[in-house]
Amino acid sequence: MLPACSESPKPAEARKEPEKAAEPITARRAFQQMYITARGWAPDAQGLRCRNVPLAEVKAAEPGKAGAWECTFVSPSQQKMRTYTYSIVEAAGNLHTGVFGNVPENWGGSRPNAQPWTVAAFKIDSNAAYETALKKSAAYVKKNPDKPVMFLLEQTSRHPYLTWRVIWGESISTSNYSVYVNASTGDYLETMR
User: Fold this and answer.
1) Three-point CA angle 71, 184, 158, nearest 5°
2) Residue 13 domain-assigned?
3) How does pLDDT run along the chain (193 residues), one tens digit per residue?
4) Which of 9, 33, 139, 163 is at 20 to 30 A from 97, Cα to Cα?
5) Is residue 10 included in any domain, yes or no?
6) Residue at 57 is within a domain
7) Sign of the C-alpha dihedral, residues 80, 31, 57, 149?
8) Closest CA to 88 of 38, 43, 29
9) 3-class secondary structure for the chain?
10) What is the extent of the structural domain holding 78?
11) Does 15 fall in a domain?
């Protein structure tokens, strides 16, 4: 009689946990990563502008967070500016995971609508700016619950200090409602309609 051939039992296949989706982040967290890289490019780097980049691939779990942020830094000594992005995923529009810097461009210095600011002025994060703006915007949000929210951090002649502009709409030019919040103190400044 022939011995029966049988396969030895296979070890249980390791079950792979589904990969956790990347979590949207606040502006300050993304800015800090970009600032480290910007300082490598120019030790005197200062912020000029920071904004969220809406991504179809990433749904923000809470207002004030995004899948990608874009910040522009300037170097007064080099008279150059350079834009960086920080993304949690690879996405269209030349967005790469982590920090990615574009080619430096000439910068003609401070202008009324774009003044450089020191990193020390950036104390209030995007999610806290949203909370302040929301307190002044409850009626508008109730009437427009599906409007996307955008964030713009800059210093202009409109306000003499670093300011968040919390914008309801697809872009600044198409928005009919935004709120300004002081990015150093968190104080409400004004509402634009």
Assistant:
1) 75
2) no
3) 445 555 555 555 556 665 666 789 999 999 999 999 999 999 999 999 999 998 888 876 688 999 999 999 999 999 999 999 999 998 988 899 999 999 999 999 989 889 999 999 999 999 999 999 999 999 999 999 999 999 999 999 999 899 999 999 988 889 999 999 999 999 999 999 8
4) 163
5) no
6) yes
7) negative
8) 29
9) CCCCCCCCCCCCCCCCCCCCCCCCEEHHHHHHHHHHHHHHHCCCCEEEEEEECCCCCCCCCCCCEECEEEEEEEECCCCEEEEEEEECCCECCCECEEEEECCCEECCCCECCEECECHHHCCCCHHHHHHHHHHCCHHHHHHCCCCCEEEEEEECCCCCCCEEEEEECCCCCCCCEEEEEECCCCCEEEEEC
10) 25-192
11) no
What does the alpha-carbon distance between residue 106 and residue 91 come to, in Å, rounded to a whole number? 27
